[in-house]
Input
Amino acid sequence: MSMVFRFRMLSDENDNFVRDFEIMASSTLLELHEFIIAMLGYDPCMASFFTADDRWERTKEFTFMDMGMGVGDGGFGTPEPMVSARLENVLTHLHDRLIYLFDPFNERAYYMELIEAKEPQDGMKYPRLQFEHSPAPDQYDPEANEESGSIFEEMMGEYSDFEGDDGYDDEY
Output
């Protein structure tokens, strides 16, 4: 029986943007691409996935279309097509990372980390969105993105008003 992978997806364009989602480990990268496009409300597009190391450096590329042999590899080896790459074969350890390059001309991407592998829940349909915070960056216009601080600042905002008790003597 296949496992379910849970991912956390972040954007470097909007510090508030977070998506956690679950997908069957037996799914292909093409199926993951289609789910991401639908989840974000984006138009279909040419995209690539890259495996990434712990510093988010790209290591291996997976393309929307089979690029065939003889194509320049850009330093990432021969690209493989998404349609034949299964998540369970691409990601073998917890905290493995993927970069989802949705706008190759402007180098715009999402950053995803495998945060959990578990048994599927009975009656649950996958893939599924588990958590979302803040709108996705605009697919076509990076300047149109809503930027209003980070999720940390938003969540900690209620504590910034605490000034303490001015009458409190902190010496014994």
